[in-house]
Amino acid sequence: MTVREPRAGSPAEQEQAYVAVLYQRLDVLRAEAADRRAEAARDRGGTAQARAERDAAFARYSARLARLEAAENGLCFGRMDLAGGSRLYVGRIGLPAPDGEGDPLLVDWRAPAARPFYVATAAAPQGVRRRRHIVTRGRRVVRVDDEILDSAAAPSGDGLAGEAVLLAALTAGRTGRMRDIVATLRAEQDAIIRSDHQGVLVVQGGPGTGKTVVALHRAAYLLYTRPRLAARGVLVVGPNSTFLTYIGQVLPGLGETGVVSATVADLFPGVVADRVEPAAAAEIKGRAVMAEVLAAAVRARQAPPGQGVSIAFGTEVLRLDDDARERAAALARASSLPHNRARALFADAIIGHLAHRLAEETNRLADRLEAEVADILAEADIDRAVREDLAELGGAGQREPEEIVGAEDVRELRRSLAADPGVRAALDALWPVLTPQRLLDELFADPDRLAGLAPGLSAAERAALVRRPGGWTAADVPLLDEAAELLGADDRAAGVRAARERARRVAYAQEVLDIDAGARTGGDETAEVLTAADLLDAGSLADRHEEAGGATVAERAAADRTWAFGHVIVDEAQELSEMAWRLLMRRCPGRSMTLVGDVAQTSDPAGTASWDRVLRPRLGDRWRLARLSVNYRTPAEIMDATAGLLAELRPEQAPPRPVREAGVRPWRLSVPARELPALLARYAAAEAALLEGGRLAVITSDGRAAELAAAVPGAAAGPHPDLTAPVVVLGVTQAKGLEFDSVLVADPAGILAASPRGRGDLYVAMTRATQRLGILHPGPAPAVLAHAVPELGRPAASAADSRT
Ligand SMILES: Nc1ncnc2c1ncn2[C@@H]1O[C@H](COP(=O)(O)OP(=O)(O)OP(=O)(O)O)[C@@H](O)[C@H]1O
C-alpha cells in the first residue's frame, strides 16, 4: 500500500519530523542494548557469581531488546498540549532524552503522566488543552486528529472528528489476531486498567465491550507498575486454545513476555487433556461436591479395615489388630499432612507397634523360658557353679524383662521391619503412595467404589462418571489438581523425576557442546579453536543453565503445578466450574486477580450465571465489580437482533450500547434441512467475496462443525483452525471471545438444542460479527429470531441483497 506524503506545513508533516527523532532514538537504544547483550554473551566470567551476573545481564538485555523491537509499530500515537504551554508525546514505551536529563522524548502509555491522554474531556480537561492522535504507518505519519479540550486553544488539525481514530480502528478489516488498543483506550477502560485495587477485580460487560483487550492491557500495566510482579509472572487463562492463539500477539506486542497463557485444562503439567467426554459428565466433575468425593477417596485408602491383618516378616507372620491400625491412622491424619507425606507417620507408628509387640513377645518367651529353667533347677540338684553361670547369662530373678530385649534391640527390630519386603508390601496395601492419576483412574473405573464415596450423587450421575482408564479430559484437570493437593508430593517420584530431568538437561547440553564444537572447527577435530566444550562439560553447563534461571519465569511457572503467580487474569470467567475455581485460587494465593466475563454469555453447563455465587464463598465481599457498557465490536443492527435473546437470558441486564451502525441489516433464510451444507457453501462464498480481504466465520453447534466445514470449500476448521484464513468454520464453543468481519450462523436451532445453555451460545454466535450477520436455518426460524431478524426474500438470493 502506498503512503501519501502529508501536505507541506500540515500538522502531520510537523509531527513527522518529531516522529523521525523518536525512531532515531529508538534505533540508538536498540543498538546499545544489542551491544551490551553481545558483550554479556562473550564474557566467559570465571567465578560462579561472575557467571550468574553475566547470565542475568544477558537475560536483561534480551528482554530490553524485545521491548524495543515490539515498539516499532505505532511507537508514538499521541500528543498532549498542556495548559502551561508544554507538550507531552505518548507512545508504546518511554524514551528518555539523550542526555538522560530533561523531559522524556516519549512517555510510556502506562506512566501516570500519560493518563490525561485517555481520560481528559472538555468538561474535565485535566490540564490538557489539546489532545492529538497521531496515526502512523510504518515510520510515516499518515494523519493527525485533534480534539480541543480548552476552548481558548486555537482549532487545529486536519478537520477529523475526535472519534475518528477510534472508529477507523473499529471498522478496519479483521485479521484473525487481536490487536492492542493503546492508541484508542477509552476512559471507562482506562479506569479498569489502572485500577489500584489489589485483590480480585471482576469486569462484567456484554459482548464486544473490550473485556478481553482491557484485561490484557491491565496485565501489561501491572507488569510495568509493579516490577516485582514480573518475578512471579502473570497467568492469563482463556476458554480454549483457539482463543489463546487469537489473543497471543497482544502482550508480546506491548513488550511483555513474563506471561503464561493457558486454558484450565493446560494447568496440570505433564497431562494433555485431549480425551473427549459427554457434557453431562464434565458438568458433574465441575461440581464442588467432587472435592468431597476426592477427599473421601483418599481417606478410603488410609488403613482400610481388613487390610494388612497378617503381615509377613521374614519367616514369621505378624498379626496387626484393628485398634493398632486405627490408632496409627488417627495419628497420621491428625498431622493434617497430605496423604503421601502422612504415610511416613503411619508407617512409623505401625513399625513401632510391631517392634514393641515383637519385643514383648520375646520378653514373654524369655520369661517363660526363665521360669521353666528355674523349675528345672529347683527340681534338679545342679552344681552351684553351673547355677551361677546360668545366672550370669540372665538367670532367674536377675533382670527386668525389658533388659532381655533392650532399647537398642527395639531400634534394630524397627530397622529390620522397615526394610523387610513383606512389611513394606503390607504398608503399601494399608496406606499406598498414590499419584493423582492413579487415584482418579481407580475411582472412575469402579462403580462400587464410586457408589460408596459419592453418596451425594444420584445413581445416574455416578454412572455418567464411570469409565476405563486411558487419557484425561479437560474436566479431569481440576480434579487431578485437587487430588494432588490432598495427596501431597510423593518425594520418591519427585526424586526420580528430578534425576530424569537432569539427565535430559545434560543430554541437551552435550548436544549444544557438540554442535558448538562442530561449528567452530568446521568438523576438523584437530583445529586449534577454543570451544565451549574446552571450558565446560555437559553436566556443569546443564547446572549453570539451571542456576542462572536459564528458563524464563513463564517457562518455570508453566512447568510447576505449585507455582504461585503474582497476578491471574481469567477471561470468559463465567465458564469456570467450581472445581476450576478451586484450582485457580491455588495458583494465586495472593488473590491478585482480574476476572472478566459476561454472565449472559455462559455456555458451559458447569459455568455460572452469578459472580456473587461464585466469589462470595471464597472471598466474602473482598472483591470489586467494574462494568463496561459500550459495545465496540457489534454494530447496532446486530445488537437489535439479539435483544430478544438477551431479554430471555438475563431480563435484568441492559444490552451494551453499540458505538456505531454498520449500515447493513442482519438477515436470515429458511432452507431445506438437506440443502443446508450446499447452500451454506454458496452463501459463504458470496459473503467472503464481499469482504475484500476481511474474515468470515461460519458458526454452528459443536456437533455439526466438522460436517459443515467439509461442505465449505477451503475453509479452515478443526481443533486448531487457522483464524487468519479468509473463511473459518467453528463450533460455537470455539468461537467464544473471537470476532470476524462477517458471521454466518448455521442451524441456530441446533445450537439452541445442543446444550441447556443453548440460548447463551446463540447469543455468543450472533455477537461475533463486526459488520455483517446472516443466519441459515433449516425449517422455520426459532421463535426468538423469527421477528428479530428479517428473512431474505428469495432462498437463493445473493448475500449482497441484504444491504439495506
Ligand atoms: N478502546 C478501543 N479502541 C479500539 N478498539 C477497541 C477498544 N475497545 C475495544 N475494542 C475492540 O473491540 C473488540 C471487542 O473487544 P473484546 O474482544 O475485548 O471484547 P469482549 O468484551 O471481550 O467481547 P466478548 O465478551 O464478546 O468476547 C476488539 O476488536 C477490540 O479490539
UniProtKB/TrEMBL annotation:
<dbReference type="InterPro" id="IPR027417">
    <property type="entry name" value="P-loop_NTPase"/>
</dbReference>
<keyword id="KW-0347">Helicase</keyword>
<keyword id="KW-0547">Nucleotide-binding</keyword>
<dbReference type="GO" id="GO:0005829">
    <property type="term" value="C:cytosol"/>
</dbReference>
<feature type="binding site">
    <location>
        <begin position="205"/>
        <end position="212"/>
    </location>
    <ligand>
        <name>ATP</name>
    </ligand>
</feature>
<dbReference type="InterPro" id="IPR014016">
    <property type="entry name" value="UvrD-like_ATP-bd"/>
</dbReference>
<dbReference type="GO" id="GO:0016787">
    <property type="term" value="F:hydrolase activity"/>
</dbReference>
<feature type="domain" description="UvrD-like helicase ATP-binding">
    <location>
        <begin position="184"/>
        <end position="635"/>
    </location>
</feature>
<dbReference type="GO" id="GO:0003677">
    <property type="term" value="F:DNA binding"/>
</dbReference>
<dbReference type="InterPro" id="IPR000212">
    <property type="entry name" value="DNA_helicase_UvrD/REP"/>
</dbReference>
<protein>
    <submittedName>
        <fullName>Helicase</fullName>
    </submittedName>
</protein>
<keyword id="KW-0378">Hydrolase</keyword>
<dbReference type="GO" id="GO:0000725">
    <property type="term" value="P:recombinational repair"/>
</dbReference>
<dbReference type="GO" id="GO:0005524">
    <property type="term" value="F:ATP binding"/>
</dbReference>
<dbReference type="GO" id="GO:0043138">
    <property type="term" value="F:3'-5' DNA helicase activity"/>
</dbReference>
<keyword id="KW-0067">ATP-binding</keyword>
